[in-house]
Amino acid sequence: MRKSSILNLSVAILLAHVIVFPAVLLAGPGTESGFHDELYTEAKELIDRGDTTRLIELISENQHSIYRLALELVESGIEEELIGELQLGRQQVELSLRLAKMYSKVFDDERLQNLCQKYSRWSAKKKANKLKADSLVAQAVNLYWKSEYEDALSTCWKALGIHTELGDRKGMAADLGLAGLVHTYLGQYRSALEHLRRALNLDRGIGYLSGEGNDLNNIAIIYMWTGDYGQALATLERFLEITQATGEKANEATALGNFGVIYQYIGQYHRALDYYSQAVEIQRTLGLKRQEAINFSNIGIVHFHNLAQYSDAIEFLSQALATFDGLGDKSSAGKALLDIGSAYAKSGKHEKGLQYIKRALSIFRDIGNRYYEASALLWAGWTRKCLGDLDSALTSFWAAFRIGLELDSPEIIWQAQQDIGDTYERQGHLEKALRSYADAVETLEGLRIEIGVEELKASFISNKIELYESVIRLLYELHQKQPYKGYDALGFSYSERCRSRSFLDHLVESAWNAAQENETDLMTQEKELIKKISALHFRLLHRGKEKTERENIKGELQKAESLLQSIRLKRGIRPTLINLTSPRPLTLEEIQQNITDEGDLILEYFLGENRIYLWAISKSDIRFYQLDDANEIMNAILFYQSFMDDTSKMIPLIKMGFHLYQRLLARAISESKVSGDLIVIPDGKLFYLPFEALVTKSPGQLEKNLEIPYLIQSHNITYAPSASVLVHLMKRTQQTVETASLDLLAFGDPMSKGEFALSTGREPSRTDSVRAIEVGPTTYPYQFPRLNFAQWEVDRIGRLFKNSRRRLFLREDAREDVLKASDTISYKIIHFAAHGVLNEMIPSGSGILLSFDDDPAEDGFLSLREIADLYLNTDLVVLSACETGLGQYVRGEGILGLSRTFMYAGAPSVVVSLWKVNDQSTAELMERFCRRLVSGEKKNQALRLAKLDMMASTDPELHHPFHWAPFVLIGESKSPIQIEGPSPFTPQVILLILGITVVSSLFAGTAIRQHRSPKP
Fold it and tell me: In this protein, which residues make up the domain named CHAT (predicted)?
């Protein structure tokens, strides 16, 4: 090979290393990327050994590939600008320099020597500029923490210019990420997202996980501040995954703290506190004082905003403020001042609170933090309103509203609109107030739609019910002044808008999911996690004797719950699903068309702070009532319940039953002239009240008549979460009738691990309550009494159905795997006579206990989430167990429990119980109920007649409402269930008929013989 060729090749290999190799490798995998890598590695080894001869051979062997990569650059010459556009790793720079020096010594080529000198000068310049850019970034970060946002931005742009010139993509991403964060705090969200997404693409392009995580965290903050909580949580989940993969504990703590902020916004305060505590623990270990103080501040906010613990809040916030002042962190110090002022104002110290709020407002205006400036204005307005300065308050609210529009921040906008409405109402400008309240509801509901997970939607509205109460209260006042302007119907529409909305969304989603043929990977993961969580709850029930073991199981539960929520967030943020799961509540006219028959009456209650609002809706009329002193009514319900399980206290029970009837519905029933069914849509503690057992006459009127006139004697009574939900369930019933082909699937008296006989030496009495297990914090493991009458119940009910159209599973056969393997879409009625488990602390830990065996696939505990995954097509689910109508109460959503979950799974109607029921009387009531169903009665009529049968029993003990009142029907109630009863000619009946026939024949024969025989 000629020397000139070698020289050309040497220049080519140098250029390949300096320019082509890095560019190709950074561009991602290609057809020759593996070759480039190998060549680079071998060349480096040869240089390290000083093997010049082999290096030249390597160049010769690969000359064609090298030429393809570098010839064009060789011929055009090297431009410093071209080199400067590349991002070269430190090792690549050093290797290229060493190659250049080696070539220049070996071949003594002037071109190569010039190249080497030129490259060395460029490398030194690059190193100096890199140091300068890194210094600028550090300066920008310091300015950001001091809340000097404009200076921080200008410094970022200087650093970005140098990093761009150097081709340092990692540095460019850091500059853009910091600029995006600064724009966020200035309230310039579009610019912030643009910069952060550019940073994210750069970090992902070079595979820099830490940078990607920081970008995602900052993007999540924007989603949070603009009210897109579903996207915020999903983005944070990815950030947390990255921090755990890289082992960066500081960033993990940041993610945990931001989770806390979002859950606080949504209304899940205890979960928020848990995340804050986890973050503080990590930050304290690492000595991160600023970050620890931020989460201390957040803990303080939860204590005063949501737990009303003002002194604790001020203590936490004051500690945080001292830290921020010491660090010179103006933004965080301003936020702490605002929260301290708000805590003082909420506790009634308005003047002192306003002083702190004004200091915070001054800081936010000084540093240009528009979001927190608006927050401070809202609190200043609220405090001035409490002080009676309504004009100043209104000025503050309008200023906050304008900033909210400028920032496109729905969270700020709806709060400002609500406060403006409240101020107008206090000033007597009622129409203006109504418009502002209506605008606030529209803005708030736009935020709710963005949350893709049902549990989060439910809690989101629960701490914002005050807005709906405000508009309903105002509409009642307007209705009293102008009764014919439709304010009553408008008030009803707002009641529906805040009632069981996430449940309505979830019902639509369940229909959508059922229509999908292909199960996604996320759905498969979700099902596996649900099964795991159920197994953990089962372990807690059966094995939680030792405290250490209980804590370990709870830790596993928490991790599994977090992972499940992460998966549901990923499923829930799909745009198609969001659109599908946002059905609108129905109007009054639609409700009347779909629900009410002539003579029927809907009673919808809305529980306010100290008033209850009631709408009585018939086929052609609506009446709007305000029931004063809601607290007295709620206390009366508690007293009434306390008398219910003591059968010796009939007189107090009757008195309180009549009192509640008078307070809650006597006027509505009288004025509406109802003659048909009652549909009760309760709120608050009314969910726990059996209206059937209310007494319609005063105790004085009963002295002459021993028969107690319960409401059930004159009306069929049904319950529903909301009128709109009920219409949806009615439509589901129409589909069920068309497709279900079998009648009864029943599970009774399952064998549970740890089950024991109820008693020894005596028969169980009706005063024994044995069908409930209440999960509490202390008693582990739980014991499960044998249900002595559950088997009898299912056996007696089964006889009412045709053999070929029923499936009965008793004792060891009443297993979870049997239920899941059953063709549940084919049964019209599914009946459980088993133990119910109520866990109000952790709703997912509620469920039904079926038979326990050693099958590792199923544990015997049918949890709420497993029930939700059943695909039912039934007319009716009967939960013949204790307290199956109870669960966690969430304002605006109602009871999150078994009835709601079975409806989500596909049942339009569910029979549940409101208290701990007696085993024997439950069995007797259920047998009577099913007998009525089989005879063709409507569901609500069948249950009513079964209760009346109990009241007419020859056993006076069954007359007490403790035995017949706990079971109520929730959901669709009008349609009878088409059931094929058994043939009347069973073997027993045939034998009886034959016996009667033979006996009759004998008697007849004797008579004939006697008639025909001659007299003696």
Answer: 659-972
